Amino acid sequence: MYLPEREGMFWFILISIFTLVQAYVFWRTSSVPLVVGHRQLLAGVGVVLWLLFIAGVVYGHRGMGLAARWLEVAALHWMAVLFLLFVCLLAADIVTGFGFFIPRFAPALRGAAVIAAVLLTIFALVQGFRPPVVQRYEVRLPGLSPALDGTVIVSMCDLHLGALLGGKWMSRRVAQVQAQRPDIVFLVGDIYDGHGRSIDELIPSMRGLSAPLGVWAVTGNHEFYGGLNAFTQLMERSGIHLLRDQWSEATPGLVVAGVDDLTTRRRQGIIGEQISKTLKGRPSGATILLSHTPWRMEEAAKEGVGLMLSGHTHGGQIWPFGYLVRLFYPLLEGRHIVSGMTIIVSRGTGTWGSRMRLWRRGEILRITLRSD
Questions:
Q1: Residue 67: burial class (beta carbons within 10 Å; 0-12, 13-18, 19+)
Q2: Domains defined for the chain, CATH in brackets
Q3: What's the mean pLDDT in 49-72?
Q4: CA separation (Å) from 48 to 22, 27, 254, 333?
Q5: Phi-psi category of 287—alpha, beta or left, where left has phi over 0 and alpha has psi -120 to 50?
Q6: What residues contact residue 211 under an 8 Å CB cut-off, 6+ apart?
Q7: CA-CA distance, 9 to 365, in Å (whole number)?
Q8: Non-local CB neighbours of 158 within 8 Å, separated by 6+ positions
Q9: What local confidence, expressed as pLDDT, does residue 372 receive?
Q10: For the ranges 30-44, 63-77, 324-338, the one whose mean pLDDT is highest
């Protein structure tokens, strides 16, 4: 099980970083020419926004219902806007040597940085609210019989259903998936955040997913944050096969395997040959591995996996955050070949925190399998 104290540590670190970043942003903004005469008002706005964020992550994140949901959504959107303000103001400070190189123009440049951050925010919101694109791939899968050549996979991940996204949004995604006429559907983790909305609100839309070879899912890290019981019930009541460190033969000659989220396992101190143990004893044929976190690719390739599907990274979601994400997850998005195995890392179908994406929209994967 996920350890609650680790989640508490995550939020403590996040709030600490947020506080420092907001202090920096409001300090630098206070020198912008149009703001200089209104510093007390700016300070008051800063205190209100800081309290909004604290309330959102403490009460909003843990509560259910409309009030808690909107409180969390507002807080996390402010966090995203603050990030863009920080990046733009820091860039202006670097250019001016924090005001030492060209002190006369530094305040005006900071004002331009604030305007740039506002424009980036608007663009990111537009991209975040647009529907995900269908990204198409063809993958030659070792061991796939000619009879299964042309099998169509449709895969989604990082839906983050809960406070931000609900049943209506999911119904539209289901329509997109079914329009692709999939032979098999995969949900590769971070499907349900466990708060904000009950599973009863989501089940009708989830039941719309169907395919001749079934709908299969694995856990992501957020399934452990929100509680596995509710997520397991959501999968069971929606008719979706949940794979937890196990494999199953979707059809003779095609094995689908799924592992619990690897980042969560590492936080739990469980470091072992999880993928190897999961794949043990499977029949011959082609193997597809679902792993929310794009780690342990070499282990999967060594075990004979032909295609690995992952997510978790969101492709960075809001530029330039992806550069930091890449330090922990080198395969940020897209198709890669690792020791002869194909791995596709999705940038996610939904969004986490805010309905913002900079620069690219979310995606749904449509993968056509080809035999040797």
A1: exposed
A2: 4-128 (no CATH), 132-370 (3.60.21.10)
A3: 81
A4: 12, 16, 55, 37
A5: beta
A6: 154, 182, 183, 184, 185
A7: 34
A8: 189, 190, 220, 311, 312, 314, 346, 348, 349, 350, 351, 352, 362
A9: 82
A10: 324-338
Alpha-carbon Rg for the chain in angstroms:
22
pLDDT reported for residue 245: 96
The Cα–Cα gap between 143 and 151 comes to 13
Cα 52 to the chain's mean position, in Å? 23
Displacement of CA 213 from its chain's centroid (Å) = 26
Q: Which residues contact 245 (CB under 8 A, 6 or more apart)?
A: 258, 259, 260, 274, 277, 278
Q: How do residues 3-19 score in pLDDT, each as one tens digit? A: 455 566 777 888 999 99
Per-residue pLDDT at 62: 66
**Rounded Cα gap, residues 154 and 253, in angstroms:** 19
- CA 350, distance to chain mean position in Å, is 7
Query: How many Å apart are CA 117 and CA 123, to the nearest integer?
Result: 10
